[in-house]
């Protein structure tokens, strides 16, 4: 049986579908099972992975855990220790490609992700482990740009030439499924990216090509972007870390790797494919 934390999230939800399609028995942890919207053919239990004592009974019979860094927070080590005591043999931890950067320079930490802690807990757990060091998710652009695309042909934002190899969440979920269901990736820290590093302005152009619209990216001052994000309720520490990351420019964390193709035996999905999969979210309503 595979225990999935972060089961309703960007990676956890498609991961569950993949595991079920492979015949795996899945137990999903949710703080609100009735609102989770998960498939009826899996077991959904009420618990909080950041408070491992709430899910101890559900570790019985579990052989593998998918460890989500935001869901488990600071409790990754405790959760895995409890799992090992109850016969868990394998852990696959979701981490980030910039996990070795200074913690203050990792924007996602300010949204609750504890990528470093999750990876370190997995490596030191005594279990068979795999760490998925994911590049930035392509879906982040939907949250940032879709509202602008729905109402016009201009997308405004900072640092037009900042580039990164965004990853499709389905590729990440497929690699996670492979790591949970087999042993061939054991002991590896996998740097997982999309197939091409594209700048902000290039990404917006791709959206326009897929939608059949002449979209344009217009760069605006970072201070204006920061003000707008904070006014929308986005935490200031996250905004500051994100703007600082863009200002530093492209670095090692933005380098394309071929790990997705090596593991899955096919090229990683392109950003254009991701846009096509989510085209409805960019259309005016």
From TrEMBL:
Residues 6-141 form the NAD(P)-binding domain. It comes from the Bacteria. InterPro entries: Ergot_Alk_Oxidoreductase, NAD(P)-bd_dom, NAD(P)-bd_dom_sf. SUPFAM superfamilies: NAD(P)-binding Rossmann-fold domains. Pfam families: NAD_binding_10. This is Nucleotide-diphosphate-sugar epimerase. It comes from Actinoallomurus iriomotensis.
């Amino acid at each position: 049986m595979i225990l999935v934390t972060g089961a309703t999230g960007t990676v956890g939800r498609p991961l569950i579908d993949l595991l079920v399609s492979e015949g795996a028995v899945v137990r999903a942890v949710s703080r609100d099972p009735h609102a989770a919207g998960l498939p009826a053919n899996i077991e959904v239990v009420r618990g909080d992975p950041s408070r491992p004592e709430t899910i101890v009974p559900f570790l019985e019979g579990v052989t593998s855990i998918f460890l989500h860094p935001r869901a488990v927070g600071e409790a990754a080590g405790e959760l895995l220790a409890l799992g090992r005591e109850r016969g868990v043999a394998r852990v696959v931890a979701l981490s980030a490609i910039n996990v070795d950067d200074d913690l203050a320079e990792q924007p996602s930490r300010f949204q609750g992700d504890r990528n470093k802690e999750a990876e370190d807990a997995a490596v030191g757990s005594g279990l068979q482990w795999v760490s998925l060091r994911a590049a930035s998710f392509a879906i982040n652009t939907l949250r940032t740009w879709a509202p602008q695309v729905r109402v016009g042909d201009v997308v405004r934002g900072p640092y037009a030439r900042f580039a990164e190899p965004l990853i499709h969440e389905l590729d990440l979920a497929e690699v996670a499924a492979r790591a949970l269901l087999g042993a061939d990736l054991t002991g590896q820290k996998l740097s997982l990216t999309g197939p091409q590093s594209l700048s902000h302005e290039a990404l917006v152009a791709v959206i326009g090509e897929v939608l059949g619209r002449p979209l344009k990216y217009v760069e605006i001052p970072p201070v204006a972007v920061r003000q707008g994000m904070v006014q929308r309720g986005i935490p200031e520490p996250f905004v500051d870390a994100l703007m600082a990351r863009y200002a530093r420019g492209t670095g090692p964390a933005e380098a394309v790797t071929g790990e997705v193709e090596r593991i899955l035996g096919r090229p990683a999905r392109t950003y254009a494919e991701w846009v096509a999969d989510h085209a409805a979210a960019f259309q005016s309503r």
